[in-house]
Design brief:
80% helix
Length: 98
């Protein structure tokens, strides 16, 4: 198995975030009118946070060298985790039903 570069990993993660945003946008569109504005604001906030994270991630990837690989990896993981932690807060939980 070929080793993935940080760029590949970052691109995959950003694609997953974009897919998640699209899903959340669809949920927001189906929301009642009084909740739509609230959900749109939260989506805009999350989108902005993702945009900032993408800039930071690509900057870290460009700065990565042999002597700072572990430090770069740790910073990338911190950014990934900070965005991933926000996604569940914006998703509406659908109860499991048999």
């Amino acid at each position: 198995m070929a080793s993935s570069t940080y760029k590949d990993i970052i691109d995959d993660k950003v694609a997953a975030w974009q897919k998640g945003l699209k899903k959340l946008e669809e949920q927001a569109a189906k929301a009642s009118s009084d909740k739509k504005a609230q959900r749109r604001a939260k989506l805009d906030q999350l989108r902005s946070k993702i945009d900032n994270a993408v800039i930071q991630l690509h900057s870290l990837d460009e700065q990565e060298k042999v002597d700072n690989t572990m430090e770069t990896k740790d910073k990338i993981l911190q950014i990934f985790n900070s965005i991933d932690e926000d996604f569940p807060r914006y998703e509406e939980q659908t109860p499991y039903m048999l």
